[in-house]
Design goal:
alpha/beta, Rossmann fold, 2 domains, eight-stranded mixed beta sheet, five-stranded parallel beta sheet, 20 helices, 13 strands, about 50% helix, binds adenosine-5'-triphosphate, binds magnesium ion
């Protein structure tokens, strides 16, 4: 069981030992220090960042409130229990405003403290879950359908749009293309990171991931040798992804086209699976097979998002036909633009950078907007650039035409 570190700050020795005793009865708490002196306790909290703090407000109330405020403004997720013999409403409000999340009456009784600790544990768990990054896998059991194009451009647009750190992983371990699509030459790859799993921490990962230009997009490329890819296990992938969730806002995974155990592990831990298809019979049939497997794996229907790639308005088979055949709604459609994408792949520049005004780049921005809930300013800029005509009244237009002093226009103006 993971135990939550906790610190006590209380100048009164009897009260401190009472609270210590009560906390030691709770098996999910690890008491890492109890302090008589507020400032010593403060230093330890700022360094050790325990998720839970018990803070006595009986003495030096103003300094105590200031200290609570300082701690909670730096450590947003910390849960502080304020405690005092004085349960005056003003003090309670002041403590809550400073950042305390619970107020306990002294002398503290077992039931109150244990109830507050359980509540705090649930609160911390929920906050941790919502703070974790989202894992999106781009998958199809058919090759050449657009997985890498989608994964790369979506990762880039999510980075631009949300300001979050995004990790793009090439889990097409034997035939990955991300490094080519982005024209990068990463110093390290996923096999290297996985052989150092025991050293996994933020600074190690930072030095092993390839930063894309000056953006907050970090790439974990496929290994250069097929033998190295074989050595990576499903458990390794699961540990790596679970760690990356704590570091990045989004983790976008480009997958291989088969149902091997590594790909299935990655699909298992994904929040969404973008199942890519094209509007043609072989692709729809393959998609049916995937959906039926996902059903047997008991994946939530909402976890599977169908993306139609290379969509054309005048296709013989309509999107409604596809939805009916698959009994699943289409989440997104990406237009067909072969020349734009081919040129982007050959140049190693994502289409969103090579041709930001193209239909396909705008489509990726819209997709990133839909997933993140953040609106892009890109479209306002484009409207300004392409000049939606300012409203001009007819007189000012005629004035401008008169300035040109062209005979046929002058004649027209006279007629008016
Ligand atoms: N929306 C699109 N419009 C036109 N062409 C596209 C589109 N999406 C992808 N393509 C083309 O399809 C080809 C395959 O794309 P991509 O490499 O992204 O697919 P993939 O599923 O990753 O392939 P693989 O299975 O080999 O990894 C590329 O030549 C790309 O230009
Ligand atoms: Mg690919």
């Amino acid at each position: 069981m993971i135990r939550l570190p906790m610190v006590i700050i209380d100048a009164d020795e009897t009260s401190r030992s009472n609270v210590t005793k009560l906390i030691e009865e709770v098996n999910f708490i690890e008491l890492i220090g109890d302090f008589e002196n507020m400032l010593t306790g403060y230093d330890v909290i700022m360094q050790a960042r325990p998720p839970l703090v018990f803070f006595d407000l009986t003495e030096n109330v103003d300094l105590a409130l200031d200290t609570i405020e300082k701690i909670s403004s730096v450590h947003k997720n910390i849960v502080i229990f304020a405690a005092s013999e004085n349960v005056d409403a003003d003090l309670v409000i002041q403590a809550m405003r400073a950042g305390a999340r619970e107020f306990l009456t002294k002398p503290v009784v077992k039931e109150d403290l244990h109830r507050a600790l359980k509540k705090a544990r649930n609160m911390l768990k929920q906050e941790q879950e919502s703070a974790e990054g989202k894992i999106y896998s781009v998958f199809s059991n058919k090759g050449g359908i657009g997985k890498t194009s989608i994964a790369t451009n979506l990762a880039l647009q999510l980075t631009e749009l949300t300001g979050e750190r995004v990790c793009l992983i090439d889990l097409n371990l034997q035939m990955g293309d991300i490094a080519t699509f982005l024209d990068i030459n990463p110093s390290f790859d996923i096999a290297y990171v996985i052989t150092h799993l025991s050293r996994l921490d933020e600074s190690f990962l930072h030095s092993s991931l390839e930063k894309y230009k000056d953006k907050d997009l970090f790439i974990l490329a496929d290994p250069p040798d097929i033998e190295q890819a074989e050595e990576i296990s499903a458990d390794d992938i699961s540990s790596l992804l679970n760690f990356l969730k704590t570091m990045f806002g989004y983790i976008i995974i480009d997958t291989s086209s088969g149902f091997d155990i590594k790909t299935l592990t990655c699909l298992d831990v994904s929040d969404y699976i973008f199942l890519v298809l094209m509007v043609n019979l072989p692709s729809i049939r393959n998609c049916q097979k995937c959906l039926s497997l996902f059903k047997r794996l008991e994946y939530d229907e909402d976890k599977i998002k169908l993306i139609v790639n290379r969509y054309m308005e005048d296709d013989e088979i309509t999107v409604e036909d596809v939805e009916e055949a698959l009994n699943h709604s289409i989440f997104w459609k990406i237009p067909n633009n072969y020349f734009a994408l081919m040129s982007s792949i050959n140049k190693g520049i994502p289409i969103s950078e090579l041709d930001p005004g193209s239909d396909i780049s705008r489509n990726f921005i819209r997709l990133a907007e839909k997933l993140s809930g953040v609106a892009s300013s890109h479209f306002e800029d484009i409207e300004e650039e392409t000049g939606i005509l300012p409203k001009l009244d007819i007189d000012s237009i005629l004035e401008k035409l008169k300035d040109l002093n062209l005979p046929f226009i002058n004649k027209f103006i006279k007629q008016q």
